[in-house]
């Protein structure tokens, strides 16, 4: 955030306000961590913040401090739309385009109060009064940490705020493995540990939280995996029926796509998940090295994201989608 933006933000926060904080649809650890950290921080500054998530968050994030205060737009659309109309300020965190909030987009579009975007995805939209967007960061949580420091309010980071920020940095960096993890990331994380983030408990809460059904679902995804060594690609799929067979709950498919990348000499992995209710196939793409899956998702599958992690959608059926995917992969250089 540049000096002018810090000044603008200080002015916007100078007197107590009603402030809505919005993560992207299907919030992950970074989206939840950044919104909850900001929520806890703004409360300490005597504002009246509220986190409004477009839809429910996964159960493995339900332990996060103040997650019980998060309102779910999908569960109560009319009332939440009215609540949004009464806000003085809107923060949108961990996404670059309003359509990433699903149906909430229409409500947000009609608001006239200032928006503040904090995000690390490519090609940010221009709806915000303050756009703090920088793809060099591995997580929005790291950017929220920087924002609190820039506001000269580091002393307000307590154990709960540190816990939320640590969670987002840890999950979005693949436990400090992905290329955007820098010395600065580790210095911030060290600081958050000193401020009380329970660094050895958090991975346990996030990752050692499987149901037996979830492990079986993972087993099926691994069985369904197809490897195309000549294209350095591995992909898998899960049908709606398979999700039902293993009593799918939100979050169960999280991280499965990464298994493809653990195969030697594979640098592009994808998972296709049939979502009959939504009427499309949700796709996750991951890469190692220079292959840009953000570009791939944008060009071919109505999506986007980052260089090494992106997502998209297909409105064809599974068979047609997978055939299309294989054809594209065979025609490009990975
Ligand atoms: P995931 O595969 O975990 O859903 O998403 C990986 C990354 O790509 C995340 O940073 C996410 O925000 C982004 N992403 C996922 N789906 C979409 C999409 O449909 N459109 C765009 N623009 N980005 C997406
Ligand atoms: Mn993120």
From TrEMBL:
Domain DDH: 18-169
Domain DHHA1: 245-330
InterPro entries with a match to the protein in the record: DDH_dom, DHH_sf, DHHA1_dom, Oligoribo/pAp-PDE_c-di-AMP_PDE
SUPFAM superfamilies recorded: DHH phosphoesterases
Single GO MF descriptor: nucleic acid binding
Protein's name in the database: Phosphoesterase RecJ-like protein
Organism: Flavobacterium croceum DSM 17960
